[in-house]
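Quick check before the chapter quiz. The format below is the same one you will see on the exam, so make sure you can read both the input and the output lines.
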Amino acid sequence: MPLLLPVMLPLMRILSVNIGRPRPNPWKDDPGFTAIDKRPVSGPVAVTAPGPKGDGSVGLAGDRVGDVQHHGGTYQAVYAYSREDYDHFEVLLGRELRAGVFGENLTVEGHDLSEARIGERWRGADGLVLEVTAARTPCNTFRGWMDARGWLKTFTREARPGAYLSVVEPGAVEQGGELEVVDRPDHDVTVAMFFKAAMGERELIPRVLEAPSLAPAEAAFLRSRA
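Here is the expected output.
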């Protein structure tokens, strides 16, 4: 009988914790500001569950969002992006991409976020537990902010969207800290699969809807697309 080795779940290192400060949004009239320009901060940052979407509340203390109808709230409390995916886009764009430029709160390394599963849980410092809820989908503000010809098509084609997370248990994040994947559902619905379904690959929608931890609003959106 073959020896069954334990499955090692990923361990991420937090390279940067990023907070968004409001700035004028020339790519959208309502609202007239955006917080996509997130910048690294030092020291521990408290992370709490913000409550339902609608008032701009987010998970990291001091962070903001501009479009409160489409961003923030319980299921988009934290946005994570990987350094490995940044490296991929640096080659495609031919320029350096600093941490936070995609609007993420956490820039991490050590985990393929496109292969993270919906419902997957990460544990951090001070009891923090985060749960993967969805993929980021691009908007006009993101397109304008990146100032790259055909950016939305490029971002969609590459399917490296980063992960939205909810806050299951509050805690803190800090540059140099770690996030450990502590629970991974046994389904195969990944962040990349969700992204592709949301961006037009409708044949994937029934599979994505099977994920039990899918955010209600995201499930409703996918059903409308189907």
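If your answer matched, good. The mean pLDDT is 94.
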